[in-house]
Each structure stands twice: as structure tokens, then as C-alpha cells.
């Protein structure tokens, strides 16, 4: 992807992130478990950064640390050059609006007792947007994600899984974010729906100038979508490279093992 | 490759059940033949009827009055669907065995692994306590759990997902079944584990000379493990061929679109060929092709005439009026 | 963690509970308005009588001294002497406890024997005759107060049809009616829990797997499902037993049984503070012990719990 000559700071800079989950138990000196072990990554504006790893490698913990939902035990996260750890809670909330996250399971992401209209307006009401502007925005966003706005008064259970994931994406976009973390956004979806959602995500990125951190265990999917891929194993980034380079010359043994395990071989049909 | 006589033969199997006053068509008349020493992959998305196929063979569908099964399932000449429950029970676990998707949920949490294996062999093969224990040990070794003696005396929660799945496989093959049904056994596992389990299944198939029905929604896994493949959509088989033939020359538009819609490095920068629309409503009974509403090749006759599964090439069947025709993406 | 550490942890919790309850009892009695010495002495008492009583009660000393003295005594299971009978509270309680315990155990047995088999059968055969029987029992059991049932049973089986004795605790037969009245109410709750637990287990995935193994129906229901279903019942039963001890107090009145119930009731009528104090702490200890035993039993049967 060609840059236009201007050297901009990366949108996200993580320096030496460590996240230790404390052991449980009163009066027990339990050594904490290092979920994230000195991770440093930089995500440039307009890029799709891929994070690949198997269950328990710490990728979701890292995502939550970047958003400061579950702040890191040590290390810093810089968003647009600003260190999130130095912000007061009210400022942090403002910055957080610019970063959103989409999770794997659309079923639990939406409140089953709220109409999708209400789910989408919640965030907008919080930041004080008046009703006419809210309605307009919701209509636009539903349109963008391919849901007819005549359905806005329906409840989540009236939609299919794929449609629900679209609604979740629309909700994330109500805050006009610049950065989206996508944590296994299509893993729960049928193959034919996956393709629809992936196409949607690519369109949105292009139309709204978004930056993505795409997390998945599926190396094929990540190599399709992402410009840069980082491989995570037991809390550490073991290898990171441009997608083509990583696939052509994997260096770390774990990366090689991952590539070898892809059923049917990497590179598809 | 093809034995003259199939091990298990499904003929025109249709399963309907009522749900909230409407009739749901889980299977709309399918025909599949399974052979000894062959892994037959059944690939389909959610709601396609692939799991119902498995549970129909095993007779595990709740036999409530709200559900109707028609058709035949022949195993070595006997029709499993007409068999009384007591007789069918003697086939389950011993002759036809099953492995499920989430081992944590499908293993009894209160019994040790050794016990769950021994129970099988004591019941079906009449082994004594000592013989059963020895067999359990042997089986665990066979599935790659033999290194640690403690596994026999462990509860499921003490084992990792991969180990649990291997244990479930050990239970399934404990009585040397002729036919193994594997329903998405690797879906809940990490990709490196997945590879090991697939290899294990293939090895066991060779050693035990079993026929295997391998169900998955993932074409890549099917490509890795299957010898023969059937594609199921909305309760009907739309294509059936040998693995090589299917992947070299997919004939049905659904199969072709599925393959094109799977993302990988080669397609970087290109839009994925997504299948528009949604899966057919399971309560509807269209006259024509079930895939027509989503099909780029659909024409008038597709909506009024149901295409039958016909042989278009040696051993390669497809149910489409326009096999071989191409479309603009 | 292993069993020993688990037991140790629960034991600590037990001791803390008893300590907390003793403290609460101590302060509640002393916070109630009115000088206990006055109440005990009566209207006609002279100041010197009152002072004597106060000295006996120990309420003339500063509160903190009273409190630590009390705690010290509790640790030694010494609750002082009854105001009325002058006998040590501890021996009074221990004299009568066996009867109450026997009643509660008997009631528990009756309740369990009714509840668990019917609960299991209702879950295994829904909408069958067993299910309706279970439904009726649980509705009746929850609606009918145990003392009413006791009086009713007395009328029918001790007066109209004199099978059982009317009062007294001479023979085992005299415990039957009270134990039944006690047990029936609790059976209702146990039955519902059993049915729910069993139903839940029967709908779980490992049952389908067991069926796929070719296991006979009876083995699936009564070996595979039952083992898992009974686990939560153990905890419920433990708590129920505690309530049963409490219920025994009322039933003893109905059937004129000389157990703990009557002892405590009279203590309350007569404002016998040492006895009341001792009584409450004693009940707390017994209840905690019962739950402790249930917890330990549960963790022995289900080792996964120990991880928490």
C-alpha cells in the first residue's frame, strides 16, 4: 500500500506491555500468570494488522490491554501519540471512543431486551447527540452494513447470526472510531456468511479510513486480510513480518508449525 | 476403491419434525453410500442437516411423535430404521460408533476415563475387570495417551481439550466398530491439535479397517481428510464425488461458490465471492432447486423443477440443471 | 488443592462463623432496651435484689469485660448457669439434645426416602403418574405448615385411630408422627430440587454420548445421570437438615416431647438469658457443623470443587 510521502506516527504504539493475572487465594503467595509477556507492536494508520495465535496465547488479553479496558500491569499504550496511562478517566473515555472492539459472539454482544435501534442509540445518547441527528446516523449506519432500517425496531433474536454481527459492527461505528479491534469476528459464522462480513469489513475500512487490528486463529484468513502479521505464542510475539514475507519465509518454529497445520495446505483451493 | 457392496447405505432419507406449529424439513430425501476403509466427508453449513444425518444413523433422534422419518438406512442388509430399539442398541458403540464435537460436554464429568472405556468393553465384549483394564490401557496407547499412566485414573476435567478428544476417540473405537461417525470432532480445537486428531483418525481407519463418516463445515478439513465428499445444502445432497474430482472440478454452483468464498493469501486484494442471501428457511417446500434464490446461474426452470442428483462424470454426481456453465463474478 | 487444605479452609470458616454469631448474640441481648435484671427481678423487687441479680448476671461489669469473659467461656463451651434452674446451661442442653437430634435425623430420613426416589422418577418419566404424585407432594408439603400437619396427624392417628402415642417420648413409635410432620414439609423442597437436578442432567450432552455408546437406558439414567444429579442435592440436604433442627423446636411443642425446643421456648418465656445465649450459639455451632460436613462430603464426591 503506497504511502503519500508524509511520515506519520503510528496510530497505536505498544511498548513492553506486560499483563499479569494475579493468582487467587487469601494469604497465598501465588505467582501471577503472565498472559502478555513484553509485547511491543506498532500499528500504522490505514493498515490492517493481523494477530494470529491459538487459544490461551494472550491475544484477547492484549486487545483488552490496548483499549485500556483491562489496563496493562506495566508498559505503555500510545494512541495517536498520547499515552493512555497518563490520562484522567474523563479524558480516557474520550479517547476510547476513537477505538472500538468487535467480538466473536454476536449473540452475547447485543442486549436481547433492547431493540437494535435502542442498542445503537445508547452510545449516541451518552455523548449528547439529539434525536434527529441520532436517527439519521442510525439509518446511515444500518444502510452501510446492509440491514434495512425498517427493521430497526426489531429485537436481536429476530435476526440471523450474520445479521447480528452486522448490527454489532454498526454499533461500533456509531462512535465514529478511527481504530477497530476485531477479535475473531467471523469464527462463529458459517462460511458463506463469513465472506459477506469480510467483504463488508474491507469496504468499511476503505470508505471510512479505518485502521484494524485483526485477531484470529485462522492463518488463511489473516493472510488474506492483513498487511502485517504478528504470531503470538504464550504471551509473546514470536514473529512479525509483512504477510507475503511471513508466508514465504517463516522463521520461528512455531510459525512453521502453524503453517504446516493448516488443513489442505496454506494457499487454499 | 469402491467395494461392490456398500457398508452402510442411506436411501431417500427424509426427516421432518414440528417446531412451534410448523413443519421443519431437516432432511429432504438424501442418498449416500459408505464403504469400508473409506473416509466419506459430509460438508455443509449450519442447518444443512449434516448432524441430523449422523443422529438418524445411530437412532439418536428423540423418538417423539412430533418427528417423522422416512426412507431406509441399510447396514449389511438390515434396515436400521425399522429395527426395534433393543436390537438397534446392540449396534451402537459396538458396530457403529460416534465421536462428538465438544469433548468436555460429551464426556461424563463424574467418571474416570479408564472407567468410561472399561464400561464399553465390559458391556459389549463381556470382558472381565482385569481384561477390560488392559484393553483400556492398550486403547489409550493407540490414541497417543499412553505415555502417562495417570490418564486412566483421571477425570475429564483434569485433561486438556486435545487429550479429552483422544479419550473420546479411544472410547469410540474400543469395540472395533465397522463404522465410525465423527461429527465435527476438531471444530472446537486449536489448529495444531486439529492436525494431530485428523492424522489419528486416518491412522485408526487404516488399522481398524473402518468406514468413516466425517462431518464438517470446513472444506479445508474435508480436503485434508476425506477420500470421498458429499456436499449437503438445506437437507439435500447437491454434489458427491471423490476428493480429487470434487476439488479439481466442482460442478454445483454452491460448491464452486463455497470454494471461491474462502479467504486465503492468494486472493489478497480481491473481493471474496460471497454467496448472497441466506440459507433457505427450513419450513419451506419449494418445487424447484433449493439453492436457486442465491444462485448466479438460476433461470426460470430452476424455480419450477427440482434437479436430481445425476452422474455427470465417472463417480461424480451433481444436482443442477446447468453443470459446467460459468458465470461472471 | 487437595482435600486436607480444603477441609482446613472450611474449618477456619466454621470457627469464624461461630465467633461472629456469638458476638452478635451477645450484643443483641444487651442492646435490647430494658435492664434484664429488672425484668427477671419483677415489679416488687428491692434495689438490693436487683443488684444481686445483676451481680449474678454479670451485667454490673463494664461491657468490654463482659464481652471477653463471654468469649472466653464460649471457647470452653461454658455458658454459665440457667437463671431459673441454676444448672449449668451446657449440661441442660446436652441432656436434651439427643432427642431433638433423633427427631431431626428421623425426619430427614423420612423426607429423603420420600423425596429422592419420587424426584428421580418424576424427572425420568415426565408427565407420568409419578410426576403427578411428586407435584402433589411438593405442593402440599410447601403449603401445609408442619405444626398443623402434626396436630392433624395426632388427631387422626393418635386419637381417632389410636396407633401412636399422644405424647411423651418413651418409645420409637412416639417419634414417628413428629418426624413425619417435620420431614414432609422438607421433602417437598428436596423433591423439587431432585427433579430439577435430574431433569437438567438428562438433557446434557454426555447423555447423548452415553446413548451412542449403546448403554442400556437404565444404566444411562441411574448410573450416568444420577451420579451428577445427586451432587447438588447433597448441599441442599445439608441446609435442609439445619432447618429441620429449627423445625423440631415447634414440633416438640405439638407433641409434648422433652427436647431442646421446649427448653429454649421456656427459656425465652422466662427471660433466661444465659440459657438463650447458650442456645443460640449452640444451634449456630450445630448448623455450621452440618453444612461443613455437607461441603466436605460434596468435595469428596466432586473433586473439581476443590480447585476453587
Explain how this protein is built.
The complex is a heterotrimer of chains A (269), B (329) and C (308). Chain A has 269 residues and is an alpha/beta fold. In chain A, 37% of the residues lie in helices and 23% in strands. Chain A has helices at residues 59-66, 89-97, 106-109, 116-126, 131-145, 161-173, 191-208, 219-225, 243-248, 253-261, and strands at residues 12-21, 33-43, 48-52, 74-79, 82-83, 99-102, 179-183, 211-216, 228-233, 236-242. In chain A, the strands form two sheets. A six-stranded mixed sheet of chain A has the order 6-7-8-3-9-10, with helices on both faces. A four-stranded antiparallel sheet of chain A has the order 2-1-4-5, with helices on one face. In chain A, α4 crosses α5, α4 runs parallel beside α6 (161-173) and α5 crosses α6. Chain A is globular. The model of chain A is unreliable at 25-29 (pLDDT under 50). By secondary structure, chain B is of the alpha/beta class. Chain B is 32% helix and 23% strand. In chain B, the strands form two sheets. An eight-stranded mixed sheet of chain B has the order 6-7-8-3-9-10-12-11, with helices on both faces. In chain B, strands 2-1-4-5 form a four-stranded antiparallel sheet, with helices on one face. In chain B, α6 (161-173) packs parallel to α7. Chain B starts with 7 loop residues before the first strand and ends in an 11-residue tail after the last strand. Helix content of chain C is 78%, strand content 0%. The mean pLDDT of chain C is 82. Chain C is built from twelve helices and no strands. The relative contact order of chain C is 0.14. Chains in contact: A-B, B-C.
Topology:
The complex is a heterotrimer of chains A (269), B (329) and C (308).
Chain A: E1 12-21, E2 33-43, E3 48-52, H1 59-66, E4 74-79, E5 82-83, H2 89-97, E6 99-102, H3 106-109, H4 116-126, H5 131-145, H6 161-173, E7 179-183, H7 191-208, E8 211-216, H8 219-225, E9 228-233, E10 236-242, H9 243-248, H10 253-261
Helix pairs in contact in A: 4-5, 4-6, 5-6
Chain B: E1 8-19, E2 22-34, E3 39-43, H1 50-58, E4 67-75, E5 78-79, H2 85-91, E6 96-99, H3 103-106, H4 113-125, H5 129-142, H6 161-173, E7 179-183, H7 191-208, E8 211-216, H8 219-225, E9 228-233, E10 236-242, H9 243-248, H10 253-261, H11 300-304, E11 310-313, E12 316-318
Parallel strand pairs in B: 3-8, 3-9, 6-7, 7-8
Antiparallel strand pairs in B: 1-2, 1-4, 4-5, 9-10, 10-12, 11-12
Helix pairs in contact in B: 4-5, 5-6, 6-7
Chain C: H1 3-31, H2 36-41, H3 47-57, H4 63-75, H5 89-124, H6 129-143, H7 146-160, H8 173-202, H9 205-212, H10 217-254, H11 260-269, H12 273-301
Amino acid at each position: 500500500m503506497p504511502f503519500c510521502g508524509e511520515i506519520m506516527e503510528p496510530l497505536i504504539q505498544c511498548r513492553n506491555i506486560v499483563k499479569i493475572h494475579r493468582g487467587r487465594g487469601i494469604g497465598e503467595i501465588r505467582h501471577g500468570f503472565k498472559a502478555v509477556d513484553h509485547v511491543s507492536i506498532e500499528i500504522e494508520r490505514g493498515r490492517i494488522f493481523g494477530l494470529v495465535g491459538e487459544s490461551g496465547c494472550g491475544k484477547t488479553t492484549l486487545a483488552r490491554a490496548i483499549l485500556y479496558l483491562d489496563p496493562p500491569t506495566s508498559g505503555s499504550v500510545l494512541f495517536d501519540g498520547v499515552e493512555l496511562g497518563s490520562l484522567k478517566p474523563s479524558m480516557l473515555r474520550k479517547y476510547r471512543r476513537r477505538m472500538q472492539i468487535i467480538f466473536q459472539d454476536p449473540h452475547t454482544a447485543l442486549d436481547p431486551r433492547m431493540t437494535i435501534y435502542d442498542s445503537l442509540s445508547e452510545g449516541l445518547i451518552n455523548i449528547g447527540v439529539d434525536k434527529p441527528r441520532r436517527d439519521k446516523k442510525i439509518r446511515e449506519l444500518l444502510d452501510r452494513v446492509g440491514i434495512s432500517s425498517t427493521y430497526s425496531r426489531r429485537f436481536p433474536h429476530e435476526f440471523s447470526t450474520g445479521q447480528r454481527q452486522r448490527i454489532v459492527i454498526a454499533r461500533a461505528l456509531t462512535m465514529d472510531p478511527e481504530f477497530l479491534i476485531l477479535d475473531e469476528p467471523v469464527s462463529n459464522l458459517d462460511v458463506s456468511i463469513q465472506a459477506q462480513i469480510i467483504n463488508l469489513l474491507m469496504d468499511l475500512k476503505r470508505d471510512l479510513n479505518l485502521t484494524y487490528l485483526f485477531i484470529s486463529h485462522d492463518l488463511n484468513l489473516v493472510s488474506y486480510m492483513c498487511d502485517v502479521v504478528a504470531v503470538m505464542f504464550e504471551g509473546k510475539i514470536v514473529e512479525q513480518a509483512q504477510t507475503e514475507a511471513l508466508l514465504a519465509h517463516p522463521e520461528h518454529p512455531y510459525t512453521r508449525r502453524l503453517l504446516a497445520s493448516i488443513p489442505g495446505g496454506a494457499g487454499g483451493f | 476403491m469402491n467395494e461392490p457392496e456398500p457398508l452402510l447405505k442411506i436411501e431417500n432419507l427424509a426427516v421432518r419434525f414440528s417446531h412451534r406449529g410448523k413443519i421443519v424439513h431437516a432432511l429432504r430425501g438424501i442418498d449416500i453410500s459408505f464403504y469400508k476403509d473409506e473416509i466419506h466427508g459430509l460438508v455443509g453449513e449450519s442447518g444443512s442437516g449434516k448432524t441430523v444425518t449422523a443422529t438418524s444413523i445411530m437412532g439418536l433422534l428423540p423418538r417423539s411423535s412430533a418427528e417423522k422419518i422416512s426412507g431406509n438406512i441399510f447396514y449389511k442388509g438390515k434396515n436400521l430404521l425399522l429395527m426395534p430399539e433393543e436390537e438397534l442398541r446392540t449396534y451402537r458403540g459396538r458396530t457403529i460408533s460416534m465421536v462428538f464435537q465438544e469433548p468436555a460436554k460429551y464426556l461424563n464429568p463424574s467418571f474416570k476415563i479408564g472407567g468410561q472405556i472399561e464400561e464399553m468393553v465390559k458391556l459389549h465384549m463381556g470382558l472381565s475387570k482385569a481384561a477390560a483394564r488392559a484393553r483400556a490401557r492398550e486403547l489409550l496407547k493407540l490414541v497417543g495417551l499412553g505415555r502417562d499412566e495417570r490418564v486412566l485414573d483421571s477425570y475429564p476435567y483434569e485433561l486438556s481439550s486435545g487429550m479429552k478428544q483422544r479419550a473420546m476417540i479411544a472410547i469410540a473405537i474400543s469395540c472395533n466398530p465397522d463404522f465410525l461417525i465423527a461429527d465435527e470432532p476438531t471444530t472446537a480445537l486449536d489448529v495444531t491439535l486439529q492436525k494431530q486428531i485428523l492424522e489419528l483418525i486416518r491412522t485408526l481407519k487404516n488399522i481398524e479397517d473402518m468406514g468413516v463418516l466425517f462431518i464438517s463445515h470446513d472444506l479445508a478439513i474435508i480436503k485434508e481428510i476425506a477420500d470421498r465428499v458429499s456436499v449437503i445444502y438445506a437437507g439435500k445432497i447437491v454434489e458427491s464425488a471423490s476428493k480429487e474430482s470434487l476439488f479439481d472440478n466442482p460442478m454445483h454452483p454452491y460448491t464452486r461458490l463455497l470454494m471461491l468464498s474462502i479467504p486465503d493469501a492468494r486472493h489478497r486484494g480481491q473481493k471474496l465471492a460471497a454467496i448472497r442471501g441466506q440459507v433457505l428457511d427450513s419450513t419451506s417446500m419449494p418445487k424447484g432447486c433449493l439453492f436457486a434464490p442465491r444462485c448466479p446461474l438460476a433461470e426460470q426452470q430452476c424455480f419450477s423443477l427440482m434437479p436430481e442428483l445425476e452422474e455427470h462424470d465417472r463417480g461424480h454426481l451433481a444436482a443442477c440443471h446447468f453443470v459446467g456453465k460459468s458465470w461472471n463474478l | 488443592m487437595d482435600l486436607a487444605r480444603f477441609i482446613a479452609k472450611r474449618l477456619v470458616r466454621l470457627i469464624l462463623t461461630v465467633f461472629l454469631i456469638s458476638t452478635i448474640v451477645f450484643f443483641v441481648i444487651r442492646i435490647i432496651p430494658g435492664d434484664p435484671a429488672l425484668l427477671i427481678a419483677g415489679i416488687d423487687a428491692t434495689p438490693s435484689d436487683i443488684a444481686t441479680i445483676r451481680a449474678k448476671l454479670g451485667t454490673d461489669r463494664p461491657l468490654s469485660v463482659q464481652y471477653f469473659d463471654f468469649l472466653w467461656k464460649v471457647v470452653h463451651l461454658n455458658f454459665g448457669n440457667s437463671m431459673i434452674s441454676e444448672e449449668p446451661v451446657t449440661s441442660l442442653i446436652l441432656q436434651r439434645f439427643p432427642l431433638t437430634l433423633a427427631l431431626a435425623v428421623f425426619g430427614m430420613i423420612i423426607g429423603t426416602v420420600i423425596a429422592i426416589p419420587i424426584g428421580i422418577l418424576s424427572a425420568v418419566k415426565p408427565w407420568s403418574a409419578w410426576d403427578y404424585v411428586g407435584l402433589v407432594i411438593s405442593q402440599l408439603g410447601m403449603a401445609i405448615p408442619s405444626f398443623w400437619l402434626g396436630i392433624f396427624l395426632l388427631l387422626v392417628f393418635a386419637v381417632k385411630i389410636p396407633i401412636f402415642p399422644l405424647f411423651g417420648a418413651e418409645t420409637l413409635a412416639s417419634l414417628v408422627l413428629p418426624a413425619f410432620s417435620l420431614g414432609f414439609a422438607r421433602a417437598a423442597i428436596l423433591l423439587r430440587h431432585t427433579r430439577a437436578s435430574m431433569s437438567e442432567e438428562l438433557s446434557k450432552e454426555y447423555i447423548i454420548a452415553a446413548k451412542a455408546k449403546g448403554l442400556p437406558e437404565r444404566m444411562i439414567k441411574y448410573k450416568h445421570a444420577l451420579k451428577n444429579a445427586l451432587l447438588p442435592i447433597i448441599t441442599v440436604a445439608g441446609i435442609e437438615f439445619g432447618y429441620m433442627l429449627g423445625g423440631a423446636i415447634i414440633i416438640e411443642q405439638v407433641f409434648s416431647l422433652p427436647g431442646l425446643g421446649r427448653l429454649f421456648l421456656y427459656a425465652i418465656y422466662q427471660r433466661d438469658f444465659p440459657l438463650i445465649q447458650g442456645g443460640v450459639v449452640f444451634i449456630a455451632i450445630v448448623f455450621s457443623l452440618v453444612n461443613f460436613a455437607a461441603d466436605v462430603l460434596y468435595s469428596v464426591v466432586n473433586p473439581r470443587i476443590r480447585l476453587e
